[in-house]
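Many introductory courses stop at the sequence. We go one step further.
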Amino acid sequence: MKDRAEITQRLAARLREERTEKGLSLDALAKLSGVSRSMLSQIERGESSPTVASLWNLTRALNIDFSALLDSERAAENPIREVMTADRTPVIRNRAAGCEIRILSSAESVGRTEVYDLRLAAGAALESTAHEAGTVEHLTVLEGRLEIASGAEVVQAAAGDTVRYAADLAHAIRAEAPARALLIVQGG
């Protein structure tokens, strides 16, 4: 078995490599993982050993497995990065709004390209305030019909239709009857 110092240094180097490869700052990874920025900095410098809980949060945020942090060489022969089974897919249930949002994108894509599976009950309304300047949403209706509002403009969309709209101003998705849609949010 490798000595503790070597494992700590390997972990530090791999964590820093994964974070920078994904274009994440220490602050961004801290927000995604729930591990403080100062602790991340100490771990990446090899000055602190993370707890199992911290490692779990970091690997989920970076969309990698534990072994990837200790591998001395990249696993190029394994191009599949992750399989997110249905029971592990994060789900937000907003009963008041009448919708269920399954988060399909990985943690490192937050703020760039986010993908959601929306399920709306009859009478549901998913209303959003303005996102970052330049943000655009692409909504494809999979089942039912939806009303999409962006600013003062409102359109109707049926199954198979795609609507692209500015999301850097107030916008909403409404369903009179049950509906399902795929939503892609592209940051500005």
